[in-house]
Amino acid sequence: RADTHRATALLRTRGIMPWRRFVATMKGWREKAEELHAACLVRGAFAQWRRRTEVAVGEREAMAEGFHQRTVLARAVQGWRQYVSYCRSLEELADQERGVLLQRRVFRAWQRV
Known about the structure:
rod-shaped; mainly alpha
């Protein structure tokens, strides 16, 4: 009876029980390692997606800025052309008024004679 007790005690302390604890510990570590690996993969994929998205957003912002610059330039040129046209029409109106005033002066001078 003592021999069987000794044999079972040895199995518990030095045999199957420590082995079972070791296997359970290894299983837990493996699961943690797999979770960490999956998290690293997700983090890497997300980082790559983020970089690509930032590049795409930068390109779109550059395109929008170029469009804005062209639009501002086109509006400025259009405004300048309208101003030049307005100045020419004022000059034509002034020439007409000057012609009318000159006619009146000449007519009045002719009437006095």
